[in-house]
Specification:
The chain is an alpha/beta fold and 328 residues long. The protein has 14 helices and 11 strands. The chain has a 5-stranded mixed beta sheet with strand order 2-1-3-10-4. The protein has a 4-stranded mixed beta sheet with strand order 8-5-9-11, with helices on both faces. α2 packs antiparallel against α11 (253-287).
């Protein structure tokens, strides 16, 4: 009887120790919330899940990232503002939206800026790219890495084969002055609308079309409303993964290293799956009855040349453009 009592007592002590040990471990774990506007099937979302897994693995569970997709925590601009006050830890936004917080990023909104995909990656992954990631730090937004968002093209409800066809059309753009200017130069009527509201806006005729990359066009199901996609590939705006400096400054050096390494690894992973997503999207929208046309890019290029000329009196922006164009 005495042995049984001792055994029971010992079991209770062991259970208590395990509970205390578990609580101690849980106290050590630090969780960062990441909110964004993409669907869970999007390659960029998958890259962020990859990053979260790598952070957990590197940290042994001491640092965790909880991801909230589909605008659960707000639009791109709203998420950026939440980062600034520390109510949200991380987000992913298009650099088109981010230019409102860091003027240097307007460079990405210049049509036909890059020579090709390979040169674009050399820019983004080099010294110029790092400088641009740091450009928003004064606004409490630290860039961790760029994600490939391919090239953006126009899609419409009525057939368009050249810039003349865009004349007078109401075209959805991001909250980006560069995007607004570009559409104006091409003869369209730019209409800023949040991404999550665009499907309904297309359905109801608030806008006649939009511009984005193929995977976003496909995964948003905008092809159900817009049956014409013109491959002009006017801009190549990367997505940017950001952490608010209020959150970043709470991390110790080891945690910062885990997060930085995981972010860079996720960007490499995302490059591989992005190309597959582009090809799949192209095939699927064609199956759904979308007419996809190759555009004469030179026609578009000539009309938007004034956008470059507008930076002639801005030494900083002119310098960034020249640096990018000098990358072989």
């Amino acid at each position: 009887m005495k042995n049984k009592f001792l055994h029971t007592k010992l079991s209770l002590v062991l259970c208590l120790m395990l509970v205390l040990f578990s609580c101690k471990n849980e106290e050590k774990a630090k969780t960062i919330k990441l909110g964004h506007g993409l669907d869970v099937s999007h390659p960029v979302h998958k890259a962020m899940v990859f990053m979260a897994d790598r952070v957990k693995e590197k940290s042994g569970g001491k640092l965790l990232i909880d991801i909230y997709p589909n605008q659960q925590l707000g639009s791109e601009r709203e998420c950026l503002e939440l980062l600034q006050i520390g109510s949200l830890g991380m987000t992913k936004v298009s650099t088109g939206v981010l230019e409102n917080f860091a003027p240097e990023l307007r460079v990405f909104g210049l049509p036909f800026l890059f020579k090709d995909r390979e040169q674009r990656f050399r820019v983004l992954e080099g010294e110029i790219g790092q400088d641009l990631l740091n450009a928003s730090i004064p606004k409490k937004l630290k860039g961790l890495t760029f994600y490939d968002a391919g090239s953006r093209s126009f899609y419409t409800k009525t057939e368009v084969s050249n810039p003349a066809g865009l004349k007078g059309l109401k075209l959805r753009v991001m909250e980006s002055q560069s995007a607004i200017d570009m559409v104006k130069y091409l003869g369209g009527s730019p209409t800023p609308i949040a991404w999550g509201e665009l499907y309904t806006a297309l359905q109801q005729g608030i806008v006649d079309g939009a511009e984005n990359n193929l995977p976003s066009f496909y995964l948003s199901r905008h092809y159900e409303v817009c049956k014409y996609f013109i491959l002009d590939e006017h801009t190549a705006l990367p997505d940017e993964l950001l952490i608010g400096t209020p959150t970043w400054n709470k991390l110790n050096d080891q945690e910062k290293q885990w997060l930085t390494e995981a972010a860079q690894e996720s960007a490499e992973y995302q490059k591989k799956i992005w190309r597959e997503a582009e090809l799949h999207a192209l095939e699927e929208v064609k199956k759904a009855g979308v007419t996809v046309r190759e555009a004469d890019k030179e026609e578009f290029r000539k009309l938007v040349e004034p956008m470059y000329e507008s930076f002639e009196e801005n030494p900083e922006m002119k310098g960034i453009i020249q640096q990018i164009q000098s990358v072989k």
